[in-house]
Design brief:
Elements lengths: L4 H9 L1 H15 L1 H21 L12 H16 L9 H4 L2 H16 L1 H13 L4 H11 L7 H29 L4 H16 L18 H14 L3 H9 L9 H25 L11 H13 L16 H13 L12 H15 L5 E3 L2 E3 L1 H28 L4 H12 L8 H4 L2 H16 L1 H8 L19
Antiparallel strand pairs: 1-2
Helix pairs in contact: 2-3, 2-8, 3-4, 3-6, 3-8, 3-21, 4-6, 4-20, 6-7, 6-10, 7-8, 7-9, 8-9, 9-10, 9-11, 9-12, 10-11, 11-14, 12-13, 13-14, 13-15, 13-16, 15-18, 16-17, 17-18, 17-20, 18-20
Length: 469
């Protein structure tokens, strides 16, 4: 018997150790692939649960093939915190099914790898190097030493924010006539759905059910806004809330670009929808402002809606397409190419227009690798949306504007719907599911997973500049 036999025998007796070693090795070799594998595995788990007859309110009301497609689509939508759904949630799914969806939203919001790292930290009371590598991939921490603090911030932020939202929402739901049990459940569900930017609703008409309630709308907006900032930003603000000058560049860029995008969206939506008789044309100025502000926040990745998207003007559709494609902050529950990507691209274009050599912002200089990365993210996102739209146009009979809106909503994990998800066939649901999964994992994570290793050239070609523009 070889000297390694006791170790092999020990591994057979302890399969958990073998699984842990395998995951650790995979985390070191390719954290991105571990991220994708984990998300797919969790989506499959929730899809299986939703396929059970107990998850349906009326088993047998649809064909088996359609139910499987619905279950897979909603599982992806919940874990990817998107909010798109081909069915009316409160009518199609049973209480058990809605509980499964809620759990999927919470798990997706935490992030599969973040949750795994937090559990490992709770057991070992500290993070090892390999666990930190896993957490770094999930949270985009700048260095391994920040991961432990950032992971604690992730959990504390989510639990605290959801608890605050639920506590503030609970008495208002009682005032609206809900029973104590229903008010408690609704407050917990909507706090989870809002902070994780999921956009799932369980009331008739969706977000329109609360259209005349500024208090509920304000809480939903607050949850979506904070959840879409990103945990690195929340961490920085929590640590240096009274010293804005000490905030890092990422925080300043995120807050500035977010404010600009929100302000532009609010202004143009007011212009486009205030006179629209199908949406806000017959409502007073105060109600119109609150509802438009709500709709300006939601394309960041929220997904709640107080009005029918199909009734909004084509100008509003195009504006929301752009806002959904941009998305929210990096390392957040939001999707899209992220606001910092847009900020870097705008700054680079401005610098080039002025004929300057370096890109400067807030007293810092951006590296060329950052600019190239932003360009890669933009192009990759645009290609995904383009291919997804072409595919969906072949599958669906809907017009281009509706299909484009639905595809961008899926890619940006937003959840606002033009109605395509509710009418498309099974093939269309599977196509949108793939787009949601890609959008949630992120273009950079996907690209890293497909690359075996970085290639380094030991030589450089002579420089020459072609005519551009």
């Amino acid at each position: 018997m070889s000297k390694n036999s006791p170790q092999r025998f020990d591994r057979l007796l302890r399969p958990g150790r073998w699984v842990r070693d395998f995951v650790d090795d995979l985390a070191v070799a390719s954290p991105a692939r571990l991220a994708i594998g984990s998300f797919v595995a969790v989506v499959a788990f929730f899809a299986i649960l939703l396929m059970l007859p107990a998850s349906m309110r009326d088993p047998g009301s649809v064909s088996e093939a359609q139910h499987i497609a619905n279950a897979i689509f909603v599982a992806v939508s919940s874990v990817c915190v998107t909010g798109l759904t081909p069915v009316v949630t409160e009518n199609y799914w049973s209480d058990f099914g809605i509980s499964v969806i809620t759990a999927g939203i919470q798990v997706g919001g935490l992030g599969i790898l973040t949750l795994a790292s937090v559990l490992g930290m709770a057991v070992s009371r500290r993070l090892g190097v390999r666990q930190r590598l896993i957490a770094q991939q999930a949270t985009s921490a700048l260095n391994l030493g920040q991961v432990g603090t950032l992971l604690k911030t992730v959990v504390i932020t989510i639990v605290t924010a959801e608890a605050i939202l639920a506590v503030l929402m609970f008495p208002r739901l009682l005032i609206r006539g809900e029973s104590i049990g229903d008010a408690l459940w609704y407050s917990v569900f909507y706090s989870i759905s809002a902070f994780n930017n999921a956009g799932f609703t369980i009331h008739p008409g969706g977000g329109a059910y609360f259209a005349s309630d500024p208090w509920i709308l304000s809480l939903l907006m607050l949850g979506v806004f904070v959840g879409a900032l990103g945990f690195p930003v929340v961490l920085m603000i929590a640590m240096q809330w009274n010293h804005p000058k000490k905030w890092d560049l990422h925080t300043k860029l995120t807050l500035t670009t977010t404010t600009v995008v929100l302000a532009v969206g609010l202004l143009f939506l007011l212009i486009f929808e205030s006179a629209n008789p199908d949406t806000l044309g017959d409502k007073n100025a105060g109600h119109t402002f609150v509802e438009v502000l709500f709709m300006a926040v939601m394309p960041r990745s929220g997904g709640f809606s107080t009005m029918e998207i199909a009734d909004m003007s084509q100008s509003s559709h195009l504006l929301m397409d752009l806002m959904m494609f941009i998305g929210g902050g990096s390392s957040s529950t939001a999707g899209g190419i992220k606001v910092t990507t847009v900020a870097v691209l705008v700054l680079a274009a401005y610098t080039e227009a002025r004929g300057l050599q370096d890109v400067h912002v807030f007293g810092r200089r951006l590296t060329s690798s950052t600019i190239k990365l932003a360009i890669s993210v933009l192009l990759t996102g645009a290609i995904i949306v383009f291919i997804g739209t072409l595919t969906m146009l072949q599958i669906s009979a809907e017009p281009l504007d509706k299909v484009l809106f639905e595809v961008i909503s899926a890619f940006g994990t937003v959840g606002l719907s033009s109605g395509v998800s509710a009418t498309v066939n099974e093939a269309g649901l599977y196509c949108l599911s793939v787009i949601m999964l890609i959008g949630r994992l992120g273009t950079i994570t996907l690209a890293a997973a497909l690359s075996m290793q970085d290639s380094v050239r030991l030589y450089r070609y002579p420089e020459e500049r072609p005519v551009v523009g």
